[in-house]
Amino acid sequence: MYETLTYSGGVHKSEEIRELIDDLGGFILQENILQMDLILNMAIPIDDVDKIKEKSKELLGKISIAPMAGCEIAIVSPTLARHHLPHAACDISEYLRRFGAKDNMIGLARGAGKGTAGITEYEKRLIEEHDIAIYALGSFKQCIIDKTFLFDDIDIPVIVTGAPEIDINDLPGADEYVSGLGRIPRRLKRGENIRALRKLVEVVEKTLDKKRKDMALDPPLAPSILVKNAIENQVPAISEIISPTPVTSQLDGVRVKLDYDKYNEEIANVMINDKHLAEIADIKRSQMYNYILVKLLSESAII
């Protein structure tokens, strides 16, 4: 069992905590350097968390639990237009990243208005490549209810946000609803906005925990963080990727930011213990930039 943590500290002597993570059999999930500050998301064997905390204290850094680390979240806005996308949706994205989430913003091609809103099959497939989807909708109850067709057949957990209070039973296809986050034309910095964001974090954590428990009933043969580490060590082209998180962890797989046509065979031949990755996972073409999507097969599927 692994605990996901976030280390925040200086770049100076940061190689010591990286070496300790490796010595303990842990994994670095994501690394961001902002001038002289380092933010490191990691997965550590649960029995060794105290050792990481001791090293962090020695380096004058800070360790916090990162319950969303190792997952990928889609934040869906009805359109890319200015009145839908930039404010609440972007602040939701930024806030979730504080808790270790890797999230992607997705604006639907024609989601504006009850009469013209729509979602394409391509958009559905792109959203379903993630662990969960958060739909950032608007401020009017009836408008939100009338747009349930945007998510009622999405095959991953869906959390809907909006301004008014709405009974979850009025939103078929949604697993959870969080109010207080409508179409707000400013940054979400007021007290009521922060409380709504904190509520959203609680709901996201609960949804991810439920998905993890469901997966534990029929788990994959290898954890996704082990697959991520193997790909990074065995595929030299990974070191040439300049995009953040070149191998992005998901609960049931990874997204590899390499061209599918050029590298899918090399990814398929990565060794996980004594098996090729293609033997324990589906290697797919991602809907995102022709990347490679690796979805791990469960034990029952392999049998």
What do you see in this structure?
- The protein has helices at residues 14-23, 49-58, 88-97, 121-128, 141-146, 191-216, 224-234, 260-268, 277-280, 299-302, and strands spanning 2-10, 27-34, 37-45, 62-65, 72-77, 102-107, 132-136, 158-161, 176-178, 247-250, 253-256, 271-272, 275-276, 281-285, 292-296.
- The protein is globular.
- The model has no long low-confidence stretch (mean pLDDT 89).
- By secondary structure, the chain is of the alpha/beta class.
- The protein starts with a strand and ends with a helix.
- The chain has 3 domains: 2-65, ACT domain (Alpha-Beta Plaits, 2-Layer Sandwich); 72-215, 3-Layer(aba) Sandwich (Rossmann fold); 224-296.
- The strands form 4 sheets. The chain has a 5-stranded parallel β-sheet, covered by helices on one side. The chain has a 4-stranded antiparallel β-sheet with strand order 2-3-1-4. A 4-stranded antiparallel β-sheet has the order 10-11-15-14.
- InterPro entries: Me_CoM_Rdtase_prot-C-like (IPR026327), Menthan_mark_7 (IPR011312).
Q: Kindly report the average pLDDT value.
A: 89
Series of secondary-structure elements, N-terminal to C-terminal: EHEEHEEHEHEHEEHHEEHEEHEEH
How large is the count of helical segments? 10
Query: What is the highest CATH level, the class of the largest domain?
Result: Alpha Beta
Number of strands: 15
Q: What is the radius of gyration?
A: 20 Å
Kindly, what is the distance between the CA atoms of the first and last residues, rounded to a whole number of angstroms?
24 Å
The coarse overall form would be globular
